[in-house]
Write a structure and sequence with these properties.
The chain is α/β, with parallel strands linked by helices. It has twelve helices and 21 strands. It folds into two domains: 157 residues, Lyase, Ornithine Decarboxylase, Chain A, domain 1 (Beta Barrel); 245 residues, Alanine racemase (TIM Barrel, Alpha-Beta Barrel). 28% of the residues lie in helices and 26% in strands. Strands 4, 14, 15, 16, 17, 18, 19, 20 and 21 form a nine-stranded mixed sheet that branches. Strands 5-6-7-8-9-11-12-13 form an eight-stranded parallel beta barrel, surrounded by four helices. β20 and β21 form a beta hairpin. 46% of the residues are buried. The mean pLDDT is 96. The structure holds ligand LLP. Ligand LLP binds next to α11 and α12.
Length: 408
């Protein structure tokens, strides 16, 4: 069930007429469907329920406080990568014992803050980081739980910029350095090894890269246990892909079938860090058409959102479906572009979209993950509003910024 559907030729989100919203709220704005968020979260939970997984929503995909609240109230934990994200999880009163903290560049201040908060575990990404954590924990008179993020040297099929499990990337500690890891753990008396972690990339549409990574990394478990480190958790990261265009995606239950038996066999509890899968298709970006411009050999639909609002097309040449809020049957071939003074400021190039006119509205789909969180204020455009739809109600959950906000 897609909660973004045309009814009487108008695009709806759940039971909300989006034309009504667009007439009331200044564009551009992001809009999220609560039902979609919950459906995706529960799909994952259901798929893995026989091993009672800890599903840590990856805050980096969408840190709107109401989105975090919805997930927290459904029992989600959180995967964080900064002190700022930790702060937001605490604002929604998330249990620290459901928080895992990854990232290659955690600062001493961030480490201290997370230890003080009492998070479940850090995902350590290097030996120098383990040493700094050990030092800080010692000073604070604490023992700190860690998982080691293993770089399994796996290359999933996805955009080059979002592959993270290949040996050339900066993430994790190489699978080939297990001896070094054991030696380091032996000297870090304030760290307790609780688990292993990998995150091989994002927008992964097949299960095979997970299977390969798991097959490689699981072999470390007996060695670590033998060395006296009772590994308890296995964290398979995030990465589950979604449909932007016509991708064939592997659904959570397919992944579960492959993962569950392996974890059961090794008596491991599972953690997972999905982000995009939960919120990606739960969000759209609504924008007003400022002009239709016919140039020599191209037609441009110029809208009031741009690369400052949603940077994915510019950064990864990512495809996002574009729909008019008022359904239209005929199509024309256009570039959909923003107002920013960069040629890379586009949402679509040479794409056939339904015929639209000046002052009408477009919805850019698949914008719930890595949308607002990657927005900037380039060319001094204040941040847009964020709206949450719940059945037949909608609420502005973050106000648009004003020009005055540009001063701070
Ligand atoms: N865990 C870790 C350690 C991560 O680095 C990430 C994403 C996730 C979980 C969540 O992955 P997901 O389930 O959302 O695939 N900005 C890019 C994606 C960057 C992904 C960064 N890491 C994009 O817009 O495609």
């Amino acid at each position: 069930m897609d909660y973004f559907q045309y009814k009487n030729n108008v695009l709806y989100a759940e039971d909300i007429n989006l034309l009504d919203v667009a007439e009331k709220v200044k564009t551009p704005f992001y809009l999220y469907s609560k039902k979609t968020i919950l459906r995706h979260f529960h799909q994952i939970k259901e798929a893995f329920k026989t091993i009672d997984p800890l599903i840590c929503f990856s805050v980096k995909t969408n840190f709107n406080i109401e989105v975090l609240k919805i997930l927290k109230n459904s029992g989600a934990g959180f995967d964080i990568v900064s002190g700022g994200e930790l702060y937001l999880t605490q604002k929604v009163k998330a249990s620290p014992q459901k928080i895992v903290y990854a990232g290659v560049g955690k600062t001493a201040d961030e480490i201290r803050y997370a230890i003080q908060t009492g998070i479940l575990m850090f995902n350590c990404e290097s030996i120098p980081e383990m040493r700094l954590m050990d030092h800080i924990a010692g000073k604070m008179n604490k023992t700190v739980s860690v998982a080691v993020r293993i770089n399994p040297d796996i290359t999933p099929r996805t955009h080059e910029y979002i592959i993270t499990g290949k040996k050339e990337t900066k993430f994790g500690i190489s699978i080939y350095e297990i001896d070094k890891i054991i030696r380091a753990l032996r000297t870090c008396s304030h760290l307790r090894l609780k688990g292993l972690h990998f995150h091989i990339g994002s927008q992964i549409t097949e299960t095979s890269p997970y299977e390969k990574a798991l097959e490689k990394v699981i072999k470390l478990v007996p060695s670590l246990r033998q060395a006296g480190f009772p590994v308890e958790y296995f964290n398979i990261g995030g990465g589950l892909g979604i449909i932007y265009k016509k991708e064939k995606v592997s659904l959570p239950h397919k992944l579960a079938k492959k993962i569950i038996p392996v974890l059961k066999k090794h008596d491991l509890k599972m953690i997972m860090e999905p982000g995009r899968y939960i919120v990606g298709n739960a969000g759209i970006l609504v924008t007003r058409i400022s002009y239709i411009k016919q140039s020599l050999n191209k037609k441009f639909v110029i809208v009031d959102a741009g690369m400052q609002t949603l940077i994915r097309p510019t950064l990864y040449t990512a495809y996002h479906e574009i729909l008019p809020l008022k359904k239209s049957i005929k199509t024309f071939k256009v570039d959909v572009v923003g107002p920013i003074c960069e040629t890379g400021d586009f949402f679509a190039r040479d794409r056939k979209i339904p015929v639209v006119h000046q002052n009408e509205f477009l919805a850019i789909k698949g914008a719930g993950a890595y949308g607002m969180v990657m927005a900037s204020r380039y060319n001094a455009h204040p941040f847009p509003a964020e709206i949450l739809v719940d059945n037949d109600r909608f609420k502005i959950v973050k106000k648009a910024q004003t020009y005055r906000d540009l001063l701070t």
